[in-house]
Amino acid sequence: MKLTKILALLSLFFPVFAFASGTEERLDLTSHWVGYTALALFVIAYILVIMEEFTGFNKSKPVILVAGLIWAMVAWVYVSQGLPHTAETVLRHNLLEFSELFLFLLVAMTYIETMKERNVFEALKVWLTSKGLSFRQLFWLTGFLAFFISPVADNLTTALIMGAVVLSVGGNNVRFISIAFVNIVVAANAGGAFSPFGDITTLMVWQKGVIEFYHFFDLFIPSLINFVVPATIMHFAIKNESPEISGSSTIKVKEGGIMVVILFVLTIVTAVSFHSFLHLPPAMGMMMGLSYLMIASFLIAKFRNIECDIFKKLAKAEWDTLLFFFGVILSVGGLGFMGYLALTSELMYTSLGATNANILVGVLSSVVDNIPVMFAVLTMNPEMSSGQWLLVTLTAGVGGSLLSVGSAAGVALMGQSNGLYTFVSHLKWTPVIALGYGASIYAHILINGV
Fold first, then answer.
1. Which region is the signal sequence (predicted)?
2. Are 187 and 398 in contact, with CB atoms under 8 Å apart?
3. What percentage of the chain carries pLDDT values higher than 70?
4. Considering only CA atoms, which of 119, 67, 60, 76 is closest in space to residue 94?
């Protein structure tokens, strides 16, 4: 430990020291000016990401720029030290990790966009708003639907659908809309934590092979507790009144919509089978699943004379989000290659212990997006039991609910609500959400501790 600190101090004044890591000779840049510059650039980029809602500056732009600068600086140092191909090899590995995530998400987003175009989600919204339920009943129904839809669809799409329902029936009841939106964010994030498909972080953990597919469902009860505990308390803040429904409308699922849902389920089964039984990347199974949709779209267009161009759906995928993942993964990968993630791992997991460190990861994910946080943990790859890997999967997934800016679901609903759901209105319920956060961790330790 002391020797490491001495070497780090000396590297401020002398050329960086090389050390072996596996078969790759790497340089410790954690105390080099290149390392400090890279850290500063990443922090600036992430501040711009957080400010996206106010500046309109897409989150992908700063992180992609910084990713390029970080790797350019890394490569320059390695070339100057006579190691011209080391950085290239590691960067290619990072690109491979991103490509698997990219292809997986691209297929999932294409299916979601196709279901939107076929009115699957719109029909669900109209059906819910026509049931004449009370505000309390709607509060629980939208919460449970968010909890059980987000494991299949992503938490962002789920939150937007349920948010549209709340806005449709909430009318001028600002208090109901605000509390219901908080509940949806918590429920969507909690539901996504016990499924490999429910959140980007769980997907990353599954694709990394750290946790097997079926083990994610060990988090079901802790995730449910994370949602139910704050929801039960918020329930009493809503008056037991019924909304006024003006008029009624009927929206039917377009032809082929149900088939798209079935194909999406089949695609998920294919991806799981590829990973579990054939030991192939899940992205390969998802790409095969995309062919199901492409063939079905062709047949619908040819024999039913209905326009169903799959490439238009591909074009509507969240490209800013996909490119944001590219920038984050490459930036964090570069910082990890410099040695910062190993240093962080030592500070967190060695000094604090796995349990405390994993709880801290969840708290961090409420301020910083959980994607770079989880990618950093996966890159550090601390030696932990499967129970601890499940714990960090849980905390990274549900920790974002502590603040409205801690998850994509919260940020999206702030934009959708037109000022009815804000950072401050969510912050009022943070102590209650934190109670659910602590209860879910306690439940996990009791149930999955062994």
1. 1-20
2. no
3. 87
4. 67
* Stretch (H or E) spanning 24: strand 24-27
Grade residue 22 by pLDDT with cuts at 50, 70 and 90: very low
CB-based contact 383:347 (threshold 8 Å)? no
**Helix, strand, coil in percent for the chain, rounding step 5:** 75, 0, 25
- pLDDT by residue (tens digit) across 136-166? 888 999 999 999 988 876 677 678 778 877 8
pLDDT digits (tens, 9 = 90+) for 199-235: 777 877 887 788 888 888 899 999 999 999 999 999 9
| Average pLDDT value for residue range 386-413 | 83
User: DSSP for 109-120?
Assistant: HHHHHHHHHTTH
Q: Does pTM surpass 0.70?
A: no
Question: Contact 38/338 with Cβ under 8 angstroms?
Answer: yes
Q: Is the distance from CB of 376 to CB of 332 less than 8 angstroms?
A: yes
Query: What is the CA 136 to chain-centroid distance, rounded?
Result: 29
Tokens of 179: 């509390």
Residue the block writes with tokens 């992609």: 64
Taking alpha carbons only, the member of 114, 74, 119 closest to residue 94 is 74
| Structure tokens belonging to residue 65 | 């720029």
Residue 401 token pair: 């609910």
Q: Quick one: tokens of 121?
A: 């989600």
DSSP 236: T
